[in-house]
Amino acid sequence: MNKIWKGRIQKDTDKLVDDFTGSLHLDQQLYLYDIMGSMAHAAGLKSIGVLDQEPFEKILEGLDLVKKDLEKKPPSGYEDIHSFIESRLVDFAGEAGKKIHTARSRNDQVVTDERMYVKQSAYDLITGVIALQENMVALAEKQKGCIIAAYTHLQMAQPVLAAHYLLSFFAKFSRDLKGFFSCFDAADSLPLGSAACVGSGYALDRDLVASLLKFSQKDANSMDAVSSRDFMLDMVYCCAKAMLHLSQISEDFIIYASQEFSQIAIDDAFCTGSSIMPQKKNPDVLELVRAKSALVAGNLTQMMMLLKGLPSTYNRDLQEDKAILFAAVGQTGACMQVFAKLLDHMAFKPVDEKIKGSFIQATDIADYLVGKGVSFRDSHQIVGRLVGYCHKNNKDLQEASLAELNRFSPHFDQDYYSCLKLGACIDSKKVDCGTGTKSVEQNLKKAKQDIKTWKLQADGLKQKLPQYQELKEALR
Ligand code: ARG
Q1: Which partner for 44 in 209, 391, 425, 430 could form a disulfide, CB atoms 3.0-4.6 Å apart?
Q2: Do 359 and 349 touch, CB atoms closer than 8 A?
Q3: What DSSP character marks residue 393?
Q4: Which H/E stretch holds residue 354?
Q5: How far apart are the C-alpha atoms of 447 and 408, rounded to whole Å?
């Protein structure tokens, strides 16, 4: 293996050590950030007179050739992507190429690449969450009047609009979205200039480098810059939290798709079959989302353990951060995408037929008696006894006659029966956070406004993401 640090180490490294310590198989994903970082770094060196115009131009041309090369075939023969790019640059740009590492260490270089990666992934995940939320709202609108059962303890609880149920997850993903926006900000700071740990011996033009790479801020302390991976921890945490939410809605859907619950139907295109049981239609997509949430939760633990007790400043342990970060970001993005599309291929089934024996309107009947002047605690007991009676006599609440009802309370009247209608149960919820048709409509409207706002905010982030062509033009 070729090395950029040959001088001190006189012997060839053992092949086993080469394989064990290398990270090229992973960090090659960072190649474009590494090239852009080098372009900006060269500009920062030129700005303080450390690099003349001619070698500067040679470096830019050389990096362009390295990029083209990398687009044709994957890198090999080097420890990591940083040494690969530097060595290829020397192949193309000769002596000028050897100057690129002035005022720089791989320690600040790698974390600069990682910050750019996290900014881009935060942006991608933001657009992924927004797409998921758009599909949630679309499904909620498509099934506006559909009443399903809300569950507590996995027991039928009360009637609810499918739209209200969907908006409950919209709310969770809105918080995830805010998390990804703040991940973007946490990564939006330039480490370059920090060099190995105490700062470069050259007064690198960090303002220029930051503006070229679209970093809004510069790290204020070199030792912190090369050692801190908080911005990655934030990212992995946000991924793990979003995945928890995805696992929860997946679990709901797995249960709801069963014959026993039969609360949703999933299109064949999003189900799989069995190799032996011909009748099976399985929700494997949802099960895999549920499983992958475990992997990302594991990534969070991995990242915390990697950082726990690490001495200042750069330690090779930090090389392992990439496998964790890439896995978390990759799984979360893929799950968001497949789940968003699944929402386009499913429908809620109204609860109508299934309510027999569920006494799902019992709370509404308790409220009905309160409306007649009974205290809630008394009314709860009256309705509880009525439910027990109906259960024993195999009757549904609407099958109880007025004479039977009056054995439990003289306050029951003919209007009891209209109170049992599921639509009436829905609209009796007057609070703005409840399932009443009006509040759900308002909340749907608000959700659509939120989506518009977030799309604008996400568009704003694009200006903080460096682009190769744009950078190349800027340096011409
Ligand atoms: N491949 C290394 C990483 O990803 C690059 C930094 C190496 N720095 C060092 N001092 N050995 O962390």
Answers
A1: 209
A2: no
A3: T
A4: none
A5: 44
Quick one: how far is CA 301 from the chain centroid? 17
Token pair 């908080």 is found at: 230
Q: Is 274 a catalytic residue?
A: yes
Catalytic residue of the set 274, 312, 375, 418: 274
174-192 pLDDT, tens per residue?
Answer: 999 999 999 999 999 999 9
Query: What was the pLDDT predicted at 20?
Result: 96
Rounded Cα distance between 359 and 425, Å, is: 12
Note whether 36 and 85 are within 8 A (CB): no
Going from the Cα of 107 to the center of ligand 1, the distance in angstroms, rounded, reads 6
Confirm or reject: Cβ of 318 under 6 Å from ligand 1: yes
260 C-alpha to ligand 1 centroid (Å): 55
Ligand 1 pocket mutation, candidates 113, 316, 317, 321, criterion most atoms within 8 A of CB: 316
Domains of the chain (ranges, CATH numbers): 15-99 (1.10.275.10), 108-203+213-353+444-474 (1.20.200.10), 362-419 (1.10.40.30)
Contact 110, 455 (CB under 8 A): no
Strands (E), 275-410: 346-348
User: What pLDDT, in 10s, does the model give residues 398-448?
Assistant: 999 999 999 999 999 999 999 999 999 999 999 999 999 999 999 999 999
What distance in angstroms lies between residue 80's CA and the mean position of ligand 1's atoms?
8
> What are the φ and ψ backbone dihedral angles of 42, each rounded to 5 degrees?
-60, -40
What atom of ligand 1 comes closest to residue 318's alpha carbon? 12
pLDDT at site 11 = 82
In this predicted structure, what is the pLDDT of residue 162? 98
Which of the four pLDDT bands, split at 50, 70 and 90, describes residue 323?
very high
Alpha carbon separation from 154 to 172, 285, 326, 414 (Å, rounded): 20, 22, 36, 32
Cα→Cα distances 174→119, 144, 180, 393, 446, Å: 19, 21, 10, 47, 12
Tally Cβ neighbours within 10 Å of residue 83. 21
Which pLDDT score is estimated for 227?
98
